[in-house]
Queue: 4 jobs
Job 1
Amino acid sequence: MSEYAIERVAVIGAGKMGTTLVHAFLQDGDVGPENIIATRRKEEPLSRLAAAEGVQTTTDNREAAAAADMILLCVKPQGVSEVLEEIAGEFGGGKVLVSIAAGATTAMLEESLPEGTPVVRAMPNTPSLIGQGMTAICGGRWAEPDHVEVTRKIFAGMGRTVVLDESYFNAVTGLAASGPAFVYIIIESLAEGGVKVGLPRHIATECAAQACLGAASMVLETQSAPALLKDDVTTPAGCTMDGILKLEEGGLRVTLIKAVVEATKRAGELVE
Ligand SMILES: NC(=O)c1ccc[n+]([C@@H]2O[C@H](COP(=O)([O-])OP(=O)(O)OC[C@H]3O[C@@H](n4cnc5c(N)ncnc54)[C@H](OP(=O)(O)O)[C@@H]3O)[C@@H](O)[C@H]2O)c1
C-alpha cells in the first residue's frame, strides 16, 4: 500500500458540487487555500470564489491539473471526455483523478488517461451542500486503498460515506443521488395535505420536512427496520392506519420502487 497524502488539489468544474468540495477541503484543514486551485469557464464566479475562500482560480484546466497531485473532476457527465482530453497529458507521477460525474465508470475514465493512473469514483448527493450528504466511493484498476481512503475522508466532511463495489454505482445513483428529489416531492405533497386540512403553508411545510427528517434520523440512529418504526406509529384503530390505507390504495410503495429502478437504468446511460 502506498503512503498517500495530498498536497495540492485541483477542482475542475467549480459549480455546485465542486464548490462544496472546496469548502470540505477548507474545513478539513489538511490542504490550505493556497494549495487549492479551482476552474470553470466563467471568470466572474471564479473571482467570487477566490475572494470568498482565498483559493487560487483559473479558467485553464491544464494549468490547474499540472499544479495538483489530486484532480477532482466535477463537470457535468457530458463534459467529461472533453476535459479529460484536455488534461490527460498532465497525469503521471502518481497523480490521482477523483471523478464525481454520474455514469462515468472508472474504466471509461482510465481509458482517457495514461496507463497506471489511479482513478477514484465518488457519487455524492445534493444534501452534501449542507453536510448531510450520502457519498458512495470506489477505486479503479490502479487506485490503492490509500487513494480510496483519502477520498472517503474528503467526502466524510460532507456527510455519510460508503465504500462500495462499482457494480452498485448505478443503483446508488438512482437511490441516494436522485432520492432527495423524490423526497422533496413527498415533502411537498405532505405539505399540500396539511394545507388541504387547514394549516398555513409555511407551517405545513415545516411539519412535513421535520416529520421526514425525524423519521430518517430514527431509522439511522435506532438502526431499526423502517417497518417496525412504522408499526410503533400505527395505534390499533387509530388515524395513521387510515392514512396508510390511502397510501397503499395510491400505490406509493410500488411507485417509489419503480422510481428508483428507472433512475438506476438512466444512470447507466448518462455517459457514452
Ligand atoms: N448535483 C447533484 O446532485 C450531483 C450528485 C452526484 C454527482 N453529481 C455530479 O457532479 C457533477 C457536477 O454537478 P453540479 O450539480 O455541481 O453541476 P454544476 O453546478 O453545473 O457544475 C458544473 C460546473 O462545471 C463547469 N464546467 C463546464 N464545462 C467546463 C470545462 N470545460 N472546464 C471547466 N469547468 C467546466 C461549469 O461552469 P462554467 O459553465 O463556468 O464552465 C459548472 O460550474 C456532475 O458530473 C454530476 O453528475 C451531481
Note: Residues 9-169 form a domain with the Rossmann fold fold (CATH 3.40.50.720).
Job 2
Amino acid sequence: MTPENAQRIDSRDKPFPWRCPECGKREVRPATVHHSSQIRHDGRLYSVEVPQLRVPQCEACGEMVFDNDADTQIYDALRKQLSLLPAGQIRQNREQLALSQRELAEHLGVAVETISRWENGVLIQSRAMDRYLRVYFGVPAARAALVEHAAAPSFGTHVEE
Ligand SMILES: [Zn+2]
C-alpha cells in the first residue's frame, strides 16, 4: 500500500533536520504539502488526495521522506474515501467492549498483529473485513455467536501462525 518509489526511513524520535536520502544534504524538515498518490488496496488501484499532508521534506531538492505518520494520514484518507472504519474508531469500539486486542483477534479469527496494525493505521482492512467488523461491533447477537464459536473446544487449541 506504500506509494511506490517513495524514499522511506524509520523516523521515530530522530531530531530534525535529517539527512536527505536523495541528495545527501541535512535539510529534511517537517513540511505540509498537497499530495496525491496511487495506492493498490484490496485488489484495486485508488487515487488518494491529501490536501495538507504533513511529511518531512528536503528543503534542498524537494524529496519527500515518508514516515509512519505520513503513511497513516494517507491511509486514513483512503479509508475515508472507501467509507471504511477509521483506525481510531476500531480501537474505540474495542475499548468500549473492554476487550484486549488479543481477545478481539480470537473472536474474529485474525492475528493479534492484524488488529494492532489496523488500530495503528498502518494497515487498511479489506472491504469484507470492514463489514465483518461492523457486524461484530454493531450486532450484539452476532458478536455473542462469534464469542461462543471462539470459545468452543475445537477452536480453543490451535497452532500459532
Ligand atoms: Zn534532498
Note: The beta strands are 7-8, 28-41, 44-58, 65-66.
Job 3
Amino acid sequence: MDFALSEQQAAFRDLIRDFAGRSISPVARESELTGRYPEEIVEEMKPMGLFGMLVPTEFGGIAIDAVSYSIVFEEISKAWMGVAGILGTHSLATLMLARFGTSAQQARWLPDLATGVRRSGIALTEPQAGSDLQGIATVARRVGDHYVVNGTKTWITNARHADPLPVLVKTDPAAQPRHSGMSVLMVEQGMPGFSFGKDLDKLGYRGPESSEVFLADCLVPVENLLGGQEGHGLQQVLQALEFGRVNIAGRAVGVAQASLDRSLAYARERHAFGRPIADFQAIQLKLADMATEVQAARLLTWWAASALDSGRRADLETGMAKLYASEVCIKAALEAMRIHGGYGYSTEYEIERFYRDAPLMAIGEGTNDILRTVIARRLVLEEPS
Ligand SMILES: Cc1cc2nc3c(=O)[nH]c(=O)nc-3n(C[C@H](O)[C@H](O)[C@H](O)COP(=O)(O)OP(=O)(O)OC[C@H]3O[C@@H](n4cnc5c(N)ncnc54)[C@H](O)[C@@H]3O)c2cc1C
C-alpha cells in the first residue's frame, strides 16, 4: 500500500501551492479584514481551469480526480479559506450538471462554467430547514411550460455571482416519501421574481458572499428542470454533497496545516525564560499532537476521495473525513492561538483568522452531528464482516 501521491498529482499540488503562495497569501489578511472581494484572484483561477475541475474535458473542463480536487482545497485554504468557497459550491453545481443534466443543459451551461465565464453555487438551506432538507418549504408549481416558484433560501454562498443557480424545490409538496416530490431547478439571474438580499455578516469565511435568495412568483421555464424529470432533486443534491464533504475536509486540512506551520515557526523564534518556547515540553506536546492529527486528517481525506474516484457509494468515507478533519482543524486553530499567546489574538497575525474560519467546516455540507448519524446508520445496517 502506497500513501504517496502519483507524480501527476504531486506536480498538480506544486502548481496550486505555488499559485496560492504567490497570489493569495500576500493579500489574504488585508482582503479578509476589509471584506474586499478577491476579484483578481478569481481572474487568475479562470485560465488555470479551476472552475472546471469537475467538468468533463469535452465541455472544456479539466476533469481532475477527487484526490487532486481535495488538494486544491487544502492548498488554497492554507493561504485563505475564503477563496476556496468561491470554487466549492460552484464545482458542486458543475458536477450536478455533468452527472444529471440533459444534453441540452450541459451544452448550454457547462462550457462557460468550466472557464469561469459563468459562475454558480447551490441553494438548499432555508430559514426553517438546513439539516432537514426534506422539510424545505420552497414550492415550484407547474403552469404550462413554466414553474412558478415561491420560497426563501438563506446562507447561499456565491449567490450574487451564480448564473445559473441550482435551487432545491418541492415540485410535489404532498408526495410520500417526501424526497420523491423534490427537484432541482436551474434559476437564472434576471428571471422575473428572483432576487437576493444583502451579504450576511459572518464570523469568518469572508471573501465569498453568503446571502438570502428570494423567489417570489419566480417564473422558471420547464427546460431548466435539472435532468428533465421531477422527483430526483434530493438524490442529485446528496451525490454532489459527497464531493462537497471532500472539499470541506480538504479545506480543514489546509487551515490546520497552516496553524501548525505558523506555530512551529513562532515556537522557534519566540523566547521566554531565556530559551525558544519550542524547547518547552508543553509546547512540543501540542506541536506533536497537531502534526499527527493533521496528517491523519489528510490521509482520511485522500482515502475518502479515492472512494469517490472508484465510483462506489462513499457517504461513510466522505462523512468520516469531513467530521474528523474539521474537528482537527478547530483544535489546531485553538492550539495555534495558545502557542502564539497574546499575538494569536491580534489581527496583525493570521491565527485569529484561522480560528474564525475553522468552525464553518463543522457546519457546512452537513453538520458534524448529522454526519455522525450517517456514519452510525451505515455501521449499524451493514452486516459484520
Ligand atoms: C458561512 C455559511 C455558508 C453556507 N453556504 C451555504 C450554501 O452555499 N448553500 C446552502 O444551501 N447552505 C449553505 N449554508 C448552510 C449550511 O449548510 C447549514 O447551516 C447547515 O446545513 C446546518 O443547517 P442549519 O443551520 O439549518 O442548522 P439545523 O439543521 O437547524 O441544526 C441545528 C443543530 O441541530 C442539530 N441537528 C439537527 N437535526 C439533527 C438530528 N436529526 N440529529 C442530531 N442533531 C441534529 C445540528 O447538528 C445542529 O447542531 C451555509 C452556512 C454558513 C454558516
Note: The chain is about 50% helix and 15% strand.
Job 4
Amino acid sequence: MMTLDELSKVLECSVGGCAYNEADACHAGAVTIAGPSGQAECATFIPLTIKGGFGDAIAAVGACQHFECTYNSELECGAPAIQVGVRGAANADCLTYAAA
Ligand code: SF4
C-alpha cells in the first residue's frame, strides 16, 4: 500500500489553457484522473483566464479512477511521475496511461 508521501507527481503538463498551468507545469495541490475506461482524462482541468493553485507547488496525482492502467494500485497512481497533455478529443489526458 502506498503512502501520501509516495503520490506521483505531474512531471509536465502541456495544457496551457488550464487555470492551474504555468510554464508547462501543473500547480494544483493534486489532480484527479478520471474519464471513461481506456481514456484517462485529467478531471482537474478548468479553462479559466485566472490562475489557480500554488505557484511553487507541483501537483500530485491525488486519485486515479483508471484501475485498468498498469500503474494503478487501489485507485492511486504508482507511476514514478505522469505527463499530461492532449491525446484525443478530451481537453487534458494522462499521457502516461498504459492499459494493463
Ligand atoms: S499513469 Fe495510469 S494510474 Fe497513473 S494517473 Fe495515469 S492513468 Fe492513472
Note: The two ends are 19 Å apart (CA to CA).
